């Protein structure tokens, strides 16, 4: 066994290691040199037969070669493994433009979403949310609200009557009376609920729809206060600066009464086809609670004053989502509902 | 109502604002102007006079007064100085008798003789036409003209055609008839007020004149009527006869009784001027109870408190004066007594005056100011809270919310009802249904007794586009009440619907919903209808359960009967859960108490066995739990199978049994021992066969 042999083995092995590009081949090379019957292993094994001095010398060199080769093998193995992983990753390429898998989710009705937003805004201003029955008596729907029988004003509210002398409420205002009967002022409430009108349906009229009604009563609650609260509501609801204006109107249960317009959302008040070039959109009816309504609710009108308003929530939702037909809300059409 | 701009201008010496600007002013201070349109040399303003202002503003003079108050321009009311004949007395040509002074508080009449009936002058014709009236002859046109000008409807009779020269205001008698000026025949009755002569009705009071004493080209003696009628009487009559006229519309809104005299003199004056003729001496005037001005105390502090703005006393007085109100003259007092002109029927309380002050002053000048109020936190509305919660949970498990109509149709009643309407379980049983008195169409004949019919219709409409449908609605249902002294039962229901073979899916969803609402003691009870009930039940007789919490039934879960689905042309199976939301809400709780997580591992052993088909899972579960004892933490059914490879009449049930102790790690031997005990117990029944 000559020294030269070791050098040759070392160089040869190094070259082979360098040359290979395959893990399996590398493994074979390892076996060839360092395996049980590997060339270098055999050299090391054959050392026993050599004289001590030579044994030590060659043994040392052989071990050096062995260690060196091990390092080389390990390095190469690491390199090749990295390469294999890289190649595998390359193969695992996906088309990121292909569509994702969507979970099946449900949808809340747009009127529910709007109702929640409305309730949240008013609750934030200290209003309690209350509810009342959809079937009403003539007393709560009309008489208590200062609309006596045979009063022409009763015609304004086209009413569904039932075959039991009751009726379907035409507005949520009766809830105000019911609430005032049981609760003393000062009070702040809103009601959102289903109301009914006996009229032909079209893109902006339905036989049932939702009304938002608000009431604030105290010692000195004024028109100026109403203006502030309702303006704040619209600004929060539509999330932009909004002006409001009030025009004279008539409701038997409020005095004074007003019609409330707000800046047209479409043109921001410049005037467009949506607002008939006026820059304003008619939003709701309101007024200062009529003393007779206080009386009919068991409160002394000398002690209390306040305002009430009523507005169509469907219309709010239609403006919010740019929906052009109120009937869609009640169509049960999933192609519509799944958009919310 | 349509108004002529030029006509309005004629009451003012000074130039009115341009039509567009005038319309804007009226909109902001009085009434909304719907349209301004140029017609020839004039403009029309279509003004939506508010219903309470009909009495004074269904007239050009009324609107002129508004304009005067808004602009400060002076409005001049036309004067009519009439020359009465010195010799001939009106009362010799006609006598007036009022049978009911409630129905007719005032009746004024004049007689004009020797009139020349012809066409009216061009200026009258033009004004009538622009306001939408058709010129007829000078007498009729003048009456219409005065009505448009003053708001007082007038009528004229041919004096020679009145039997016995009599005018009697009375209610019609049964079977009396009248043919009106429009040649329409009406059957009258005792609720309709008429103007009659000695023999028959000659006009429907306040609504329309009769054909017989009509003014024609030969008329020489004109009897003019300017009367005041009770709005309710006119309204009732107009409804009964289904006849609405310019006159009835005005009377229905009420008119100042003091207006009759001004209007009749105005008409007589114009007739004399235009159709010549003699105005006979004397105004026939039945007016037993004269109406005087009301006086209202106005507290000036209250004006400020209600409007939320300080308006000076001077300004307040000025506004009221411009509107023809009179204020008492004590300058320094904080109170004023205001005298209301009688034509303002709408004003009776201080708040009415405050509205006048506010609107003329301008609501736009009132600055928004947040109220200064005690910080009272809003009360939480639990009903709405749980509603939102339930909706959110259903949405999270993939349901879409729908809103349906509150009505069902006659056809729905037939599908969901029993023909005789006897059984209370039937949704459509007529004895339960609340019927609408005046439906617009058959679609709204009844109030919905359940949310189910309309939800099924949603399926019918959506099945073309969607293969998997999960929808729910939370809304009110209506039934006749069985409780004494209560007519109706208005109930909030929560109803969900899935399509396909989805009973267990629905049951799982329901458990999730209830658990999330903090309800745990849920069980499902077999629903056992009587044979007749099952005939008409909407539920599949074998796939339906009552949902119970503790001992209370809160709703139903089941598949809809194939018969109903067939009738509704629904192709898929439908599973529904129908819950009484009020009960659900009361049971709901926000309370959640943390359960410590065991520090010791759980072990799972599976067990599968064959049992006869009719064996219920709950029996098996009970047995496993009873034998297993505290070490069995959970038993989880993961498969029910019958069919191929399973003997006829049997089914395979497979469970995971989860073993866990609170205080130690269970040894494999310990678990095997319990598992063996369970197997033994299950095999006690020879029909039950554990598969090893």
CATH topology of the largest domain in chain A: BirA Bifunctional Protein, domain 2
Individual helix count of chain B: 21
Write the H/E string of chain A, N to C: HHHHHEEHEHEEHEEEHEHH
What is the tally of beta strands of chain B? 32
* Chains forming the largest contact: A-B, 77 and 91 residues
- Outline of chain A, from the CA principal axes? rod-shaped
How many structural domains does the protein architecture of chain B include? 5
User: Unreliable segments of chain A (pLDDT under 50, ≥5 consecutive)?
Assistant: none
Strand order in space, largest sheet of chain B: 20-23-24-28-27-26-25
Strand content of chain B: 25-35%
| Number of distinct beta strands of chain A | 9
> How far do the termini of chain A sit from each other?
86 Å
Distance between the termini of chain B: 92 Å
Report the mean per-residue pLDDT of chain B as an integer. Answer: 91
**Proportion of residues in β-strands of chain A:** 15-25%
**Sheet of most strands of chain B:** 7 strands, mixed
Radius of gyration of chain A: 43 Å
Name the quaternary structure: heterodimer
SS content category of chain B:
alpha+beta
CATH architecture of the largest domain in chain A: 2-Layer Sandwich
Question: How would you describe this structure to a colleague?
Answer:
The complex is a heterodimer of chains A (340) and B (692). Chain A has helices spanning 3-19, 23-34, 39-46, 52-91, 110-124, 138-141, 174-182, 223-238, 291-296, 313-321, 334-337, and strands at 128-130, 135-136, 167-168, 187-196, 208-218, 244-248, 254-263, 280-289, 305-312. Chain A has 340 residues and is α+β, with helices and mostly antiparallel strands. Chain A folds into two domains: 3-91; 110-337, BirA Bifunctional Protein, domain 2, CATH 3.30.930. The longest helix of chain A is centred in the first third of the chain and has 40 residues, at 52-91. Chain B is α+β, with helices and mostly antiparallel strands and 692 residues long. Chain B folds into five domains: 2-71, Phenylalanyl-tRNA Synthetase, Chain B, domain 1 (2-Layer Sandwich); 84-286, Phenylalanyl-tRNA Synthetase, Chain B, domain 3, CATH 3.50.40; 294-364, 2-Layer Sandwich (Phenylalanyl-tRNA Synthetase, Chain B, domain 1); 382-587, BirA Bifunctional Protein, domain 2 (2-Layer Sandwich), CATH 3.30.930; 603-691, Alpha-Beta Plaits, CATH 3.30.70.380. Chain B is 31% helix and 27% strand. Chain B has 21 helices and 32 strands. In chain B, strands 20-23-24-28-27-26-25 form a seven-stranded mixed sheet, sandwiched between helices. In chain B, strands 4, 6, 7, 14, 15 and 16 form a six-stranded mixed sheet that branches. Chains A and B meet through helix 5, strand 1, strand 4, strand 5 and helix 8 of A and helix 2, helix 7, helix 10, helix 12 and helix 13 of B.
């Amino acid at each position: 066994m000559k020294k030269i042999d070791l050098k040759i083995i070392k160089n040869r092995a190094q070259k082979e290691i360098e040359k290979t590009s395959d893990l399996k081949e590398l493994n074979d090379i390892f076996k060839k040199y360092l395996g049980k019957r590997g060339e270098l292993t055999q050299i090391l094994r054959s050392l026993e037969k050599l004289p001590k001095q030579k044994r030590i010398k060659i043994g040392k060199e052989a071990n050096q070669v062995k260690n060196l080769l091990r390092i080389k093998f390990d390095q190469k193995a690491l390199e090749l493994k990295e390469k294999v992983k890289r190649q595998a990753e390359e193969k695992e390429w996906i088309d990121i433009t292909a569509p994702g898998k969507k979970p099946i989710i449900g949808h809340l009705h747009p009127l529910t979403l709007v109702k929640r937003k409305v309730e949240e805004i008013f609750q934030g201003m200290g209003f309690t949310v209350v509810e009342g029955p959809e079937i009403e008596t003539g007393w709560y729907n009309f008489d208590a609200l200062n609309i006596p029988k045979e009063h022409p004003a009763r015609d304004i509210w086209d009413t569904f009557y039932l075959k039991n002398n009751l009726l379907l409420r035409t507005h949520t205002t009766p809830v105000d009376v019911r609430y005032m009967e049981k609760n003393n002022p000062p009070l702040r409430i809103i009601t959102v609920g289903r109301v009914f009108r006996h009229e032909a349906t079209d893109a902006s009229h339905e036989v049932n729809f939702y009304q938002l009604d608000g009431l604030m009563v105290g010692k000195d609650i004024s028109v100026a206060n109403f203006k502030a609260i309702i303006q704040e509501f619209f600004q929060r609801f539509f999330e932009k600066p909004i002006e409001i204006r009030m025009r004279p109107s008539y409701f038997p249960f409020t005095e004074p009464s007003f019609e409330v317009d707000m800046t047209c959302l479409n043109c921001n008040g410049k005037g467009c086809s949506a607002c008939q070039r006026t820059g304003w959109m008619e939003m709701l009816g309101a007024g200062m609670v009529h003393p007779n309504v206080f009386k009919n609710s068991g409160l002394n009108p000398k002690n209390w004053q306040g305002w009430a308003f009523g507005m169509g929530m469907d219309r709010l939702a239609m403006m919010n989502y740019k929906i052009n037909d109120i009937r869609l809300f009640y169509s049960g059409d999933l192609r519509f509902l799944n958009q919310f | 109502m349509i108004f002529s701009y030029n006509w309005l201008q004629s009451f003012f010496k000074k130039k009115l604002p341009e039509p567009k600007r005038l319309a804007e002013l009226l909109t902001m201070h009085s009434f909304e102007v719907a349209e301004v349109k140029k017609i020839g040399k004039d403009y029309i303003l279509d003004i939506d006079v508010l219903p309470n202002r009909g009495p004074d503003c269904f007239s050009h003079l009324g609107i002129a007064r508004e304009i005067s108050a808004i602009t400060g321009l002076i409005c001049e009311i036309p004067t009519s100085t009439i020359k009465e004949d010195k010799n001939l007395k009106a009362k010799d040509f006609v006598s007036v008798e009022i049978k009911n002074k409630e129905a007719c508080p005032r009746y004024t009449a004049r007689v004009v003789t020797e009139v020349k009936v012809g066409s009216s002058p061009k200026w009258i014709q033009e004004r009538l036409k622009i306001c939408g009236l058709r010129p007829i002859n000078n007498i009729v046109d003048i009456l219409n003209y005065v009505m448009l000008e003053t708001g007082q409807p007038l009528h004229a009779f041919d004096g020679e055609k009145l039997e016995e020269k009599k005018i009697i205001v009375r209610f019609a008698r049964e079977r009396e008839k009248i043919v009106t000026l429009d040649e329409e025949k009406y059957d009258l009755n005792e609720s309709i007020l008429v103007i009659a002569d000695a023999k028959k009705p000659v006009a429907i009071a306040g609504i329309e004149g009769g054909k017989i004493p009509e003014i024609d080209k030969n008329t020489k003696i004109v009897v003019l009527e300017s009367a005041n009628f009770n709005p309710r009487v006119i309204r009732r009559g107009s409804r009964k006869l289904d006849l609405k006229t310019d006159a009835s519309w005005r009377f229905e809104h009420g008119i100042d009784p003091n207006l009759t005299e001004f209007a009749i003199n105005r008409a007589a004056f114009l007739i004399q001027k235009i159709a010549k003729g003699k105005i006979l001496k004397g105004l026939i005037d039945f007016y037993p109870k004269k109406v005087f001005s009301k006086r209202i105390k106005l507290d000036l502090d209250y004006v400020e408190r209600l409007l939320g703005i300080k308006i000076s006393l001077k300004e307040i007085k000025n506004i009221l004066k411009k509107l023809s109100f009179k204020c008492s003259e004590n300058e320094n007092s904080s109170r004023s007594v205001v005298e209301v002109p009688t034509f303002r029927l709408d004003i009776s309380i201080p708040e009415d005056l405050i509205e006048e002050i506010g609107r003329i002053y301008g609501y736009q000048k009132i600055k928004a100011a947040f109220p200064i109020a005690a910080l009272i936190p809003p009360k939480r509305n639990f009903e709405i809270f749980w509603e939102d919660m339930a909706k959110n949970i259903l949405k999270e498990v993939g349901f879409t919310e729908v809103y349906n109509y509150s009505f069902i149709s006659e056809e729905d009643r037939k599908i969901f009802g029993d023909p005789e309407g006897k059984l209370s379980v039937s949704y459509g049983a007529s004895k339960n249904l609340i019927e609408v008195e005046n439906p617009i169409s058959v679609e709204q004949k009844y109030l919905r007794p359940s949310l189910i019919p309309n939800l099924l219709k949603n399926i019918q409409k959506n099945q073309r586009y969607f293969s998997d449908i999960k929808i729910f609605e939370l809304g009110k249902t209506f039934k006749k009440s069985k409780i004494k002294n209560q007519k109706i039962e208005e109930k909030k229901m929560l109803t969900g619907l899935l399509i396909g073979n989805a009973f267990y899916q629905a049951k799982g969803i329901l458990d999730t919903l209830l658990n999330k609402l903090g309800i745990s003691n849920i069980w499902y009870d077999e629903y056992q209808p009587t044979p007749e009930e099952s005939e008409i039940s909407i539920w599949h007789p074998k796939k339906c359960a009552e949902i119970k919490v503790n001992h209370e039934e809160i709703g139903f879960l089941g598949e809809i009967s194939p018969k109903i689905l067939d009738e509704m042309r629904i192709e898929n199976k439908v599973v529904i859960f129908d819950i009484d939301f009020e009960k659900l809400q009361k049971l709901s709780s926000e309370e959640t108490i943390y359960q410590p997580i065991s520090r010791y591992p759980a072990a799972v052993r599976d067990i599968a066995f064959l049992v006869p088909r009719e064996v219920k899972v709950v029996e098996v579960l009970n047995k496993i739990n009873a034998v297993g004892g505290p070490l069995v933490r959970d038993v989880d059914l993961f498969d029910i199978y019958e069919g191929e490879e399973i003997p006829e009449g049997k089914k395979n049930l497979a469970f995971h049994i989860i073993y866990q102790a609170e205080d130690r790690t269970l040894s494999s031997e310990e678990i095997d021992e319990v598992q063996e005990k369970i197997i033994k117990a299950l095999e006690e029944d020879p029909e039950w066969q554990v598969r090893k």
